[in-house]
Amino acid sequence: MRIAVCVKHVPEGPSRIDPSTKRLDRSGEGALNHFDANAVEEALRLKGDSDTEVVAVSVGPQQALDSLRKALAMGADRAVLVSDDGAAGSDLVATSRLLAAALERESADLVLFGQQASDADGAVLWAAVAERLARPVVSQAMELSVGGGTVRVKRQTEFGYDTLEAPLPAVVAVSDAINEPRYPSLKGIMGAKKKQQDVLSLADLGVDAGEAGEAGSRTTVLALGEPPTRGDARKIEDDGNAPQAIVDFLAEKRLV
Amino acid sequence: MRFLVFAEQHEGEFVKNSLGVLSKAASVGDADAVVVGTEAGLAGGLGKHGAKVVHVAAGDALTPPLPQPRVDVLAKLAPDYDAVLFGQSVLAADVAAGLAARLEAGLNWDLVDVELQDGELVGKRPALQDSVLVEVGWKSKPGLALFRSGAFDPQESGGEPEVRDVEVQLEDFSTKVEMVEQAHAEESSGPSIEDADVIVAGGRGLGAPENFTLAEELAKALGGAVGATRAVVDAGWYPYSAQIGQTGKTVSPKLYVALGISGAIQHKVGMQSSGTIVAINKDANAPIFEFSDLGVVGDVHEIVPKLTELVRARKG
Fold this sequence. Notes:
The complex is a heterodimer. Chain A has a single domain (2-211), classed as Rossmann fold (3-Layer(aba) Sandwich), CATH 3.40.50. Chain A contains seven helices and 15 strands. Chain A has helices spanning 34-47, 64-74, 92-106, 125-133, 186-192, 202-205, 242-252; strands at residues 2-6, 9-11, 17-18, 23-24, 30-32, 53-59, 78-82, 110-113, 137-147, 150-157, 160-167, 170-174, 197-200, 219-225, 234-237. A nine-stranded mixed beta sheet of chain A has the order 11-10-9-12-8-1-6-7-13, with helices on both faces. Chain B is of the alpha/beta class. Chain B has a seven-stranded parallel beta sheet with strand order 7-11-6-1-4-5-12, sandwiched between helices. A five-stranded parallel beta sheet of chain B has the order 15-14-16-17-18. A three-stranded antiparallel beta sheet of chain B has the order 8-9-10, with no helix packed on it. In chain B, helix 5 packs parallel to helix 8 (300-315). The relative contact order of chain B is 0.12. The interface between A and B is large, with 84 and 94 residues.
């Protein structure tokens, strides 16, 4: 079996939007989107001691190799990065096209995603990728098992708990409640450097420049502004008088 | 501007969030709605919220709340509209994203508002922990939009809609997922958190399940209901019916008191539209303080019993 895990390299620390490009500034330090670590962990759990191959796949700048190496250090077998100057600024439509093109080459039985990206707060990519791959998709998985050519998922929605089944090949997004991701061991970190890491360009994927980056995107950022603020927000340290301070605050707001 | 709104229903009840989006759409332009997975009987309720035409698609394959068959339905209708609008939910996000790929249509998410500027649709989206408000647009027709939970309140403005049945040929891959066991909305005991004016919610910072009595006592004193984070529900400390957040309830009480809650994004999306937010947490760097009106750095076990006493005394 082959499992592909889709991961994102996200900015670390305080982020900013570049006023000239109106895009998130991705030039600084970055890290593996922590929600994606749950997907990597789940792939490794499913692999266990079997000969299943786990491939970590990402779309992003060259620095995204750092996050792919983290996945390799955790135990993934191989990494694929789609990276091309022409891919910068891709929205959902363009990103899903690039990722689906990379996944087509892998013919994975199972494609896993984490539950959202911590930078863009997006929780949409898997459904767009599944559509392009014409595969069944299930999101918010909190328990997952594979057997007999099907994947079985227990998940939580706004209404409670569903159990779903889909035949492989399938796409599943896992919730962060599914597991506790392992920390890479020193041996894992040393070994990651030697594992296969392929970087693919748009040309390698056979995707036209007009179908990627801003040219291939169908949304646009028009302006950046100040958000409405929470009025007179305040923060206090409890010095023993916090209960009274809270009651005074509630009384002032006419809430008690 | 012609809008199509995905009117989400679960076992015959409309999701309030999607009714809010419908009301908003009807105030900006001409709004139609689409209901999938139930018979036409429900459609009249959508006219009340401003829908002129209600498209109804029903059938066995469309009954379970799964996204891919819904993409097939919306893909047939969407090309006649300028924009297709969704209220955020697990189901709606998966439908919207699948539709974006199917139609090569732009999708903007986490929007809190939408307006026309020179005849063009512009969405507003707080980003980077709500530190910046981004105005976004679309380069496709239709454009797709997902609105943050609680962005708009449902308004009653319209009358009887025209109901049209939709017949759709489903894609082979759209019918592959089988719903083995479907969640049913649970009956909870005590006051419903969705209607409560005051909510006292507890998180892992309470330390142990028995400490939920702190939240219950304070809620009782304030005349409110008790909520919980996903972490404590998963740990079995409190029932799922009290869960607030991305895969729980979305609430907007007048007062929200967060006890030992760090304020992870999954929790925030379920309560950020609350009127006044008071948070008590011993970690001064907890994200919840970034969106609280009053943040108190301190020990819930010390503060809450005294606070409950003071509230009781005040209410006499």
